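INFO  loader      accepted 1 record
INFO  loader      residues=493
INFO  predictor   begin
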Amino acid sequence: ATFYFSLSVNAMFNASLKQLSLQLAGKKISSTELTTEFLKRIKALNPEYNAFITVNEELSLAQAQAADKMIAAGQASPLTGIPIAQKDIFCTKGWLTTCGSKMLSNFVSPYDAGVIERFNQAGAINIGKTNMDEFAMGSSNETSFYGPVKNPWDHAAVPGGSSGGAACAVAARLAPAATGTDTGGSIRQPAALCGISGIKPTYGLVSRYGMIAFASSLDQGGPMAKSAEDLALLLNVMTGFDPRDSTSLQRDAEDYARDLQKPLAGLRIGLPKEYFAEGMSKDVESAIENALDEYRKLGAQTVEVSLPNAPLAIPVYYVLAPAEASSNLSRFDGVRYGHRAKSYGDLADMYRKSRAEGFGPEVKRRILIGTYVLSHGYYDAYYIKAQKLRRLIAQDFAEAYKQCDIIMGPTTPTVAFNLGEKSGDPIQMYLSDIYTSAANLTGMPAMSIPVGFGDKNRPVGLHIIGNYFSEAQMLNVAHQYQLATGWHLQSPV
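INFO  predictor   done
INFO  writer      dumping tokens
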């Protein structure tokens, strides 16, 4: 039978996950029809955006048909039948899983990542694998072997990275929601630059099993969507203990949507003086100040806090992340899977050539930095010192939370920069993560929500950092703002 969506096709692309779920449950549309519409849209617009690396209509539609049967049998959960775009860092059975690299450009995963399994169990549809910086190393989605992703608000601008394809897919309405991963800001920074919502949960809440590793003590999967309410529904599926991941936390299941309707009266918002110093552009500052005014109207109060070691987050991050990357990426040697050089002399020559051909310049740069800081004579000077500073950064946050419930500031120092603008200057590129990397070093949850537009009408994101396991509170803080404003409803298309 054919069902008819009670909204127009355009309204369907702009609908929230809750609205889509109600339409599916009420038999107003089938998952097959919904998936087909999104696949048509991806086919028409992806050449322009380059948000997806792989789309497989046959596999997506087979999942949609199975979801329709679940709905008909009354076995649906909130995400059953809803298409979700998956960052191409999550191993997905039967799908090409490339991590944005030539090294894995021929790798079809034989198994599903923990996150993918959870979406499959919930009856969600994998609508495709999204473009990303190679091995998640980058802040602009320009290091991808498959070429850069365009920002849907302005094709001359970057979408942010490394989850740039996921952010673009949600903003351009090519998918209702997407998964990302965040090692130093890779969910929140592209969410801010593309005008969507994204959350990095507390470290250990989302399984890293089958998520191709960059820096194991920093990497964390999380959802990207139009609104905080959508993020809550996605987190309900993504989080949970996984015995196959040694860093996965054993905790009781939570309903992340439980506090969405709580009023904000009495909420104490900490504003770190270090985040409101020089470095933030005027247009970003003005949008952030307007958002804080809105929070005051909603009954929250703001207090100044200090994070004295915050400025050290970037140097600490760029010692620790490459150190872990140099260890994690040693498995890509041309022996078992992935790219292997066509001609070589001996085993060492095969390693050398396969890695030289398979990795791009940014990945090589980070492997070299990481190997250097772990080498004899430099380990104590760099790596150990960075780990000590990491502890001090965490202590700063612990002190700040004695005076406030939540911390806010800008997600990025500027709006999206132009494609190519920073690719010749790695240090400038790394500074894109100046406000976001501390949450990864401490393991705290953090999110970005859209709060307006800056220069050239490019989006601005507000950064919300919570204490450990305060995701439900953060989503409440974001949701109440989104009920009072309409920035998250703005669409570039």
